[in-house]
Amino acid sequence: MSRADFLTARPAIAAPALGEPYLLTPGPLTTSLATKQSMLRDWGSWDGDFNRITAEVRSELLSMAGVGDDTYACVPLQGSGTFAVEAALATAVARDGKILVLMNGAYGKRAAQILDYLGRSYVALDKGDYLPPQPEEVAELLDSNPEISDVFLVHCETSSGILNPLREIAEVVKARGKGLIVDAMSSFGAVPLTVDKVPFDVVIASANKCIEGIPGFGFVIIRRALIEQSKGRAHSLSLDLLEQWQYMERTGQWRFTPPTHSVVAFRQALEQHAEEGGVPGRQARYTRNRETLVKGMRAMGFQTLLEDRWLSPIITTFFSPAHPNFQFKRFYDELKARQFIIYPGKLTRVESFRIGCIGQIDERIVTQLLCAITDALSVMGVDDCSPTNDPVLSEGHRP
Ligand SMILES: *Cc1c(COP(=O)(O)O)cnc(C)c1O
Predict the structure, then answer these.
(1) What CATH number is attached to the domain comprising 377?
(2) Rg of the chain's alpha carbons, rounded to an integer?
(3) pLDDT for residue 393
(4) Ligand 1 centroid to 155 CA: how many Å?
(5) What is the number of other CB atoms lying within 10 angstroms of the CB of residue 178?
(6) Of 232, 256, 275, which one is at a domain's C-terminal end?
(7) CA angle 333, 336, 338 (to 5 degrees)
(8) Are residues 220 and 367 in the same domain?
(9) In the listed set 275, 294, 313, which residue is the last one of a domain according to the structure?
(10) How far is the CA of 185 from the centre of ligand 1 (A)?
């Protein structure tokens, strides 16, 4: 397919400006034209019109999580998703609490790093780059460490793309009366997460992932009783979630300068989310993207890190071909020249790369991507996409 064909073959779902690449990355991602256009005006941060938008957004996020504002609060916070994770951990875990951090990638590790900064004690279950924490392991750890007050789990660990067994782990945690804090950053809005199925205390996500907004803020959905009793826990003025919430409840405004354009774009993105059929609709499209991608890549000889049962509809890790002509940087540049931006891998032992399935893309665009990949590999002189024989690839080591 030539470059000109790509441009004319673009379907209506996404219309980035001429020459703008599709972002096949886990946020920021490709947003719709309507979302971009919603940012073409300025808003006063104290103005009633803007405050109404904030209120709408907060209430829609609560409904998406299947909770009412009588028992849960939605607190948006300026900054990237990590700011919200940090604020949530400081708020939800008592200063003398102890948290079990389930890790199988970069974001679980980051949570532990945050706890180091906060001076909160924790126990870590580190499963390495991609193995899922198992509910039985969690049960055992909770039973042998009764002082643990809360459990932290990343729903979709974006560094490998694995969808962790959240429901099963939530059951184990709740049966023991512990708090459950879920980093649902890269899954919220595209993988069902409602309180009736997953009895969570805290869910954290951000504007620029599956809701398809632009970066600028994260949000924390937290049990009211929990945030109400969190006075004195915050370590930071700007990340004090309780203060942020109380100020917002009292005035309808953000405590400090809000990311106005990002909030307005997010409201527009939420509208499109609803039009697409809400969470199930979005999940269906992303799943189709993933299926088209994985099928096409396997046909070329690529292998996925994970077996099918662990694949998320969010992002997929592929092993790099062992072929001597394959270099990620060159592959990246060739794809970028064909208007697709992919993502480097995050595995510590083997070379890999990641391709996101989220954002304003559909199967037709994924098919164009597959053509671009075929093209890129041929230009690079890579005629065999099978990966190295590292033991990590042998079936016994795969989850
Ligand atoms: C994106 C993401 C975050 C937050 O990352 P930021 O770069 O701070 O936005 C946290 N957890 C997961 C699982 C993520 O995918």
Answers:
(1) 3.90.1150.10
(2) 21
(3) 55
(4) 11
(5) 19
(6) 275
(7) 115
(8) no
(9) 275
(10) 6
> What is the atom index within ligand 1 of the atom nearest the CA of 208?
9
Q: Which atom of ligand 1 is nearest to the CA of 156?
A: 13
Domain count, the chain: 2
In this predicted structure, what is the pLDDT of residue 348?
84
Give every CB contact of residue 261 below 8 A, 6+ residues apart in sequence: 39, 43, 214, 216
Query: Has residue 37 been placed in a domain?
Result: no
Average pLDDT per 10 consecutive residues for the chain, totaling 399 residues: 43 61 95 96 96 98 98 98 98 97 97 98 97 98 98 97 98 98 98 97 98 98 98 97 98 98 98 98 98 98 96 97 97 97 91 97 97 98 88 52
Which atom number of ligand 1 is nearest to the Cα of residue 155?
13
Per-residue pLDDT tens over the stretch 68-86: 999 999 999 999 999 999 9
Q: Give the phi and the psi of residue 48 in degrees, each rounded to 5.
A: -60, -35
Distance, CA 106 to ligand 1 centroid (Å)?
A: 9
Q: Which residues line ligand 1 (CB under 6 A)?
A: 26-27, 80-82, 85, 107, 154, 158, 183, 185-186, 206
User: Who contacts 390 (Cβ-Cβ below 8 Å, separation ≥6)?
Assistant: 349, 350
* Residues 70, 154 within the same domain: yes
Q: Both 85 and 191 in a single domain?
A: yes
- d(CA 153, ligand 1 centre) in Å: 13
Range of the domain at 110: 42-275
Are residues 157 and 172 part of one domain?
Answer: yes
Residue 180 domain flag: yes
